[in-house]
Design a protein that fits this description.
Elements: E1 3-7, E2 10-14, H1 17-23, E3 28-31, E4 35-41, E5 51-58, E6 62-69, E7 72-78, E8 84-89, E9 99-103, H2 107-120
Parallel strand pairs: 7-9
Antiparallel strand pairs: 1-2, 2-3, 4-8, 5-6, 6-7, 8-9
Length: 142
Amino acid sequence: MARIFVDGDDLVVHLSWREKAAARHGHVRAPLTAVSRVTVEPDWWRALRGVPQRGVWIPETWCVGTRSHPAGMDFVAIRPGRPVVCVELRASSSAPLSLLGVSVPTRAEATATAQSICGKAPNIDTSTPWRQPLPVPEENSS
């Protein structure tokens, strides 16, 4: 099962070998300076944004890989029925992703993980405890 933790100045999503194979992706690293907001999503399906790109998407079973949307690209490693730690990232060349979503076994563990990340990441946005909505592409007027 994927784990999310702080390693020095980086936030790391550590994947099992099965998750690496399924996602066609290695461990994910992002600088702590890119972290803008950390939230816990109790409903796993709400952490999935956009359309699947690379990875395995078996609803109600397992979702791991990248997803694209108008605001960029997300990386998720989600198992249904478990809370998800959602880490929003600022756009930068060192953090090409806009969100990391990782399932955690219990709500208490998810809350502890989120607080740990918040305590170590500089410049966290605490203006709201919820994730920001995705931008809506402008409609073409004909």
